[in-house]
Amino acid sequence: MELKVFFMILIGTILINNYVLSQMLGLCPFLGVSKKLDSAVGMGLAVIFVMTLASFFTFIVYKFVLVPFGITFMSTIAFILIIAALVQFVEMVIEKISPVLYNALGIFLPLITTNCAVLGVAVLNLKSGFITAEMGLLKAVVQGFGAGVGFTLALVIMAGIRERLELAPISKNLQGLPINFIIAGLMALAFLGFSGMKI
Q1: Vertex 43, ends 103 and 163: CA angle to 5°?
Q2: Helices and strands of the chain, counted as H and E runs
Q3: What does the mean pLDDT of the chain come to?
Q4: For labeling, which of 2, 82, 85, 133 is most exposed (least CB within 10 Å)?
């Protein structure tokens, strides 16, 4: 039974309630990093890592620090500090492991800190009632992982389309950002088709 719940959380966050295409969170890196497929994959993996760990640490801090001390009103500030620390860690690791990817991601890597999708995962874990739920920590981590995978899926699809568009004849008034918004809208409509899925 629990396995089905985790599967539903994964499918829900990846396809049905995709943070980028359904909830419109994280559009800055979605439109900024999706020019090349390799940088989109690198950014996606970094976001998966940060969202998963952020879900874990924000759950722990909220349940075992903020709630017992009665300072739950500080949750947003605490979540932002946790996310900022995780992003700094990811940035240092990517710089050491792959300097090429680090340079390709540029300013968008530190912008994961202010990516509203990452903060959205932490806040949605609270709103979903995972704090009081049975196996709530595992559900929160699965939701964070699924949200990261959904973000990466949207990013990779957009990058693939944008690479193909470089070879396509596009009228001058649609080149650049206008065609990207049209593509994002069409992708959101396509993902809307998953909202009728029965699991």
Answers
A1: 85
A2: 8, 0
A3: 85
A4: 2
Query: Six-digit token pair at 115?
Result: 């990516």
**Can you list the positions of beta strands (E) in the chain?**
none
DSSP string, 94-134: HHHH-HHHHHHHGGGTGGGGG-HHHHHHHHHHHHTTTTTST
CA distances from 169 to 36, 73, 179 (A): 19, 53, 12
| Cβ contacts of 97 within 8 Å, gap of 6 or more | none
B/e letters for 138-157, b = 16+ CB within 10 Å, e = fewer, are bbbbbbbbbbbbbbbbbbbb
* Contact by Cβ (8 Å): 109, 98: no
User: Tokens 């943070």, residue?
Assistant: 19
Per residue in 32-81, pLDDT (tens digit) is: 777 788 878 888 888 888 899 999 999 999 999 999 999 999 999 999 99
Q: How far apart are CA 31 and CA 184, in angstroms?
A: 9
